[in-house]
């Protein structure tokens, strides 16, 4: 089971692993906390955008080989989630009761007899409150499940990311390097480096399924830029997916989610 905050998060962080496990014969279930109805897009915020993004999620999941897609039913807290509570929906995921949300997720874990659950690292990757809440809710749900699953934190290797950002900052001084210094996970903390190069074409299809997220705001979004990367470079850049498993001894290195 792969637990994400919004539609398109699965494409960016775990799509290769999902496709690989599905091809190996595992039942892969994708759970999202929200429909992403407050993301940047050409469509107006609200039900119309949420419905469009869920349809994109179903398309992405089908390409990845998912057997089931579940939405927990919380509201997207939005990109401005750091503001006051008055600026957020009453049922925003970031404000959800952790025990209640974890109980919902644990019920799906039990129904599916899930052996593996992916969440995010404690910082939520880049700090979005909905992503931090995925960590909190997922961690608690794994403990509530009748049979606790292997718990993996989907992340990015911060070390090469920082090198790339520092290089880019020489040409784009407006880049805030400090925001990347605490994002995702340090190389030393990563336990699983999953080789998904065989599945990068499927991962690219998963990204492309989320068409509403390719534009909006001031112009092309990150997703649109990533889809413009030439195939050989894309395969190199996105050929590895990273995870942290906290119950393994420090320094443990694995190459498959079910390594033990």
TrEMBL record:
Entry keywords, A to Z: Zinc
GO MF term list: hydrolase activity, acting on carbon-nitrogen (but not peptide) bonds, in linear amides
InterPro entries, per the entry: GlcNAc_PI_deacetylase-related, LmbE-like_dom_sf
Keyword Plastid recorded: no
Pfam families found in the cross-reference section: PIG-L
Any single GO BP term: glycoside metabolic process
Zinc listed as a keyword: yes
Top-level lineage group: Bacteria
Name assigned to this protein: PIG-L family deacetylase
Organism field: Herbidospora galbida
